[in-house]
Amino acid sequence: MFNKILIANRGEIACRVIKTARKMGIATVAIYSDADRNALHVEMADEAIHIGPPPANQSYIVIDKVMEAIRASGAQAVHPGYGFLSENAKFAQALDAEGVAFVGPPVKAIEAMGDKITSKKIAQEAGVSTVPGYMGLIEDAEEAVKISGEIGYPVMIKASAGGGGKGMRIAWNDEEAREGFQSSRNEAANSFGDDRIFIEKFVTQPRHIEIQVLCDAHGNGIYLGERECSIQRRNQKVVEEAPSPFLDEETRRAMGDQAVALAQAVGYTSAGTVEFIVDGEKNFYFLEMNTRLQVEHPVTELITGVDLVEQMIRVANGEALSITQDDVQLTGWAIENRLYAEDPYRNFLPSIGRLTRYRPPQEVAAGPLQANDKWQGQAPVDVTAVRNDTGVFEGGEISMYYDPMIAKLCTWAPTRAEAIEAMRVALDKFEVEGIGHNLPFLAAVMDHPKFVSGEMTTAFIGEEYPDGFDGVSLPEDTLRRIAAACAAMNRVSEIRRTRVSGRMDNHERKVGKDWVVTLQGARFDLKVDADREGATMRFSDGMTRRVEGSWTPGDQLAEMQIDGAALVLKVGKVSGGFRIRHRGADLKVHVRNPRQAELAALMPERLPPDTSKMLLCPMPGLVVKVDVEVGQEVQEGQALCTIEAMKMENILRAEKKAVVTKINAGAGDSLAVDDVIMEFE
């Protein structure tokens, strides 16, 4: 076995590989850019080597720099993680020439399947059903428009070397095809050093289901079930689960057999993924093969008990698989939510800054990954697992140079419904402050009827949030539970204030019993009857709620019991009450005595400033280009400028017809959120 492995990656996946290597007794080497000097993966590794400036195309994907680090460290093998150089055949060749093992497939397999154009041709020749498209190289935007018209809109414009949603656009007309081609090409060049583009038919209402394969160099190949990855935004997965709630055993077996046959046809070894589009009739079409570890691999590990990183290392070491297809058991259900540094209220645009608070829920080890050491046996049926794969820490910086993923929160339980409920609670307990993040959106998805029923498609976000995500409106019963909890917390705060001010008379608490709680447009008049164990809330309509909990002022997480049922709230302070976040809702909860409530009703509403005649920068980023001039009349939907952030290009468009009166930024300028880019009349 190897003595030392270098991880040619960063962030969460580097930390993930280090954990398994440590378990196997293998020393690890991290590489890092200037931006990652204090990163978690650098701290966790046994050694760390600096490789250059923050941009990936000057550090993490520069093969010569990574090779220098390998030589300096004396590493015997390299795990590439995902993204960066993980599917780069030239990198694999360089390792082979150096006599260093690549923890991944052979060069020929990478060339055959890592390239999306080549993989589709091979799949077609092998008789695998594929999505219609144009697999040749496309020279320019005009050729892209012509080909798109021949295929028929809508079309998907994709980078041949792409992955993770980078270099990918959907076009519904000629203009979008022209713009999408150029943006995809730019992103592909920046992210992968390869700007080749291809176009295929965009299948509406599809499900994205992928098969995990594992092959060795001794002719053995197995599949470890499937993952449902249909909930995506900007063609990047957000929520994944295993198994899929849609497949039956017959379809699973057919997809698995086909995936293994395709992998073995190109001499594939290691852990890889064959992705399919599946329609409503369970017809499946080969989409692409990812020859590296997938971001969502933890859900497969949680239901099978197989440590995929360990298997990759053993295969790279020349070992035969110790598990056969008959040994693979799918036990329970696992769900993964990707926590991103992005603002769901601004169309999921990236956010950067310092994590002033980062407190994940406590991890719980359970499920097949813990129970099936020999790939046998069943997990305990009365427990759930919580797993959080992350590469950040409280006080750390989220950089604009890399993918905005903060963590992958996973839960496992014996059934899908229990896994969803475990995820709801885990999301409620996950504390993140200092940056924009998608926790509210993830919480909303977990409660959405389409997700709960398992009837989602890749169009889920576009269909269910056509105007963007603007938070959640909680049902009346949940509001009442929150009101009861906040009234109890307010009583604790009032008692604290009387003690601090000395307003105590013979130790009797001079705190009133009658309170008015307002939240989300609702009003609850209630009376607080407290005792040593908690308090009973008596609402004006006769309903009661029993509240118990150990919250004290200053706690940012309240774990309460309402009539014996758990209620987890993130708590902040606002004048006259609390800022409460729960299940995707962000609420201002005011708790006032009756006289205060009467006066508050007379206060005028504060209106936000008028920015309707300005184009504000929606995210921190770099201006790529400005498409208009001062004095120019623009039409609704017309491109105004392009902003690049976290390796993605974002085209900002006019919301209505107007005339440009002032331009405050130009190509190359770095902007912060809400900086005024241009003004109109």
Written overview of the protein:
- This protein is of the alpha+beta class and 681 residues long.
- It contains 18 helices and 39 strands.
- It is globular.
Give the secondary structure arrangement, pairings included:
Elements: E1 4-7, H1 11-23, E2 27-33, H2 40-44, E3 47-52, H3 63-73, E4 77-79, H4 89-98, E5 101-102, H5 107-114, H6 116-125, E6 133-134, H7 141-151, E7 155-159, E8 168-171, H8 174-192, E9 197-201, E10 207-215, E11 221-233, E12 236-242, H9 249-265, E13 270-278, E14 284-290, H10 297-304, H11 308-316, E15 333-340, E16 342-343, E17 349-350, E18 353-354, E19 357-359, H12 368-371, E20 385-390, E21 397-398, E22 405-413, H13 416-429, E23 431-433, H14 439-447, H15 449-453, H16 460-464, H17 476-501, E24 514-519, E25 522-530, E26 535-539, E27 544-549, E28 557-562, E29 565-574, E30 577-582, E31 585-592, H18 594-600, E32 614-616, E33 621-626, E34 633-634, E35 639-645, E36 648-653, E37 658-663, E38 670-671, E39 676-680
Helix pairs in contact: 4-5, 5-6, 7-8, 13-14
